[in-house]
C-alpha cells in the first residue's frame, strides 16, 4: 500500500468524488476503430510481424479505422525507417483492465510476432487497482507471452501522464497522474533485468490538434505522432 497516495485520496475525497462522477457522466464516449484489426505495410511476404494488445489505444479509440490506429502506425514507422514489409495486428478492448486481458488473449488468436506492445494502465488507474495486484497480473501476462512467443521482444508502453489531461478537472487529474506514475513504476520493475522486455515512455501529445473529439484519446495525427515518438525509443 502506498500510504501517501491513499492519505491524499482521503483528504481530497470531498472534492474529487463529485468531479469523478461528473466526468464519468459527461465525457464523450467514442467507439472503437472499425475495419480489419490487421494489415500490412509494404509488398510481398512480411519480414516482421508486430502485435499491439491492450485497452483503448489498442482498440483504436479516437479514429474511425484500425488502419489509422497505433498498431498500424507503428508498423508504418518500421516500414519507413527500415524498408521492411511489416504485418501488424491489434487486439484491444476499450475499458479493459489488466486482470481481464489474459482472458481476452485466450480467445483472440494473436499472431506470432517479433514485437509485442502492451498498452495498458488507464483503466487500472481510474479503478484504483492495487499496485501489487497490477504488478502480479502484468507479470502473469508477460510470462504467458514469453511462454507462447519466446521469439518476441515485449514493450510496455507507459500509462499516459494523466495529470496533463486538461479535459479532466483539478485536483482529479493530479491525483490520477500520481496514480498513473505509481503503476508506471511497476512497468519499470518488470522490465528491469529482462533482456526481452522494455519499458517505454508515453509520447507527449501536448497539441490539442493531436487529440480526438473527446479531448483524451489520440486522433489520426495523434496516433501518427505517438508511433513516431515510440519508434525513436526502440
Automatic annotation (TrEMBL):
A Pfam family per the record: Lipase_GDSL_2
GO molecular function: phosphatidylcholine lysophospholipase activity
All residue ranges annotated as the SGNH hydrolase-type esterase domain in the record: 52-225
Gene3D superfamilies, per database record: SGNH hydrolase (3.40.50.1110)
Protein name per UniProt: SGNH hydrolase-type esterase domain-containing protein
InterPro entries in UniProt: Ester_Hydrolysis_Enzymes, SGNH_hydro, SGNH_hydro_sf
Amino acid at each position: 500500500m502506498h500510504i501517501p497516495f491513499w492519505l491524499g485520496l482521503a483528504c481530497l475525497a470531498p472534492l474529487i468524488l463529485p468531479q469523478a462522477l461528473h466526468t464519468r457522466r459527461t465525457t464523450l464516449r467514442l467507439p472503437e476503430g472499425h475495419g480489419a484489426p490487421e494489415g500490412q505495410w509494404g509488398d510481398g511476404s512480411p519480414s516482421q510481424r508486430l502485435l499491439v494488445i491492450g485497452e483503448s489505444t489498442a482498440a483504436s479509440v479516437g479514429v474511425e479505422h484500425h488502419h489509422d490506429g497505433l498498431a498500424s502506425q507503428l508498423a508504418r514507422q518500421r516500414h519507413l525507417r527500415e524498408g521492411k514489409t511489416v504485418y501488424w495486428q491489434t487486439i484491444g478492448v476499450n475499458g479493459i483492465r489488466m486482470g481481464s486481458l489474459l482472458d481476452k488473449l485466450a480467445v483472440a488468436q494473436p499472431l506470432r510476432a517479433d514485437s509485442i506492445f502492451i498498452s495498458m494502465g488507464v483503466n487500472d488507474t481510474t479503478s484504483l487497482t492495487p499496485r501489487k495486484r497490477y504488478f502480479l497480473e502484468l507479470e502473469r501476462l508477460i510470462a504467458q507471452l514469453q511462454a507462447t512467443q519466446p521469439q518476441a521482444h515485449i514493450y510496455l508502453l507507459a500509462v499516459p501522464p494523466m495529470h496533463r489531461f486538461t479535459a479532466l478537472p483539478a485536483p482529479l487529474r493530479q491525483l490520477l497522474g500520481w496514480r498513473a506514475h505509481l503503476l508506471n513504476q511497476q512497468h519499470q520493475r518488470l522490465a528491469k533485468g529482462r533482456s526481452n522486455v522494455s519499458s517505454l515512455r508515453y509520447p507527449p501529445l501536448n497539441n490539442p490538434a493531436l487529440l480526438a473529439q473527446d479531448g483524451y484519446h489520440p486522433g489520426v495525427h495523434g496516433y501518427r505522432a505517438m508511433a513516431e515518438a515510440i519508434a525513436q525509443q526502440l
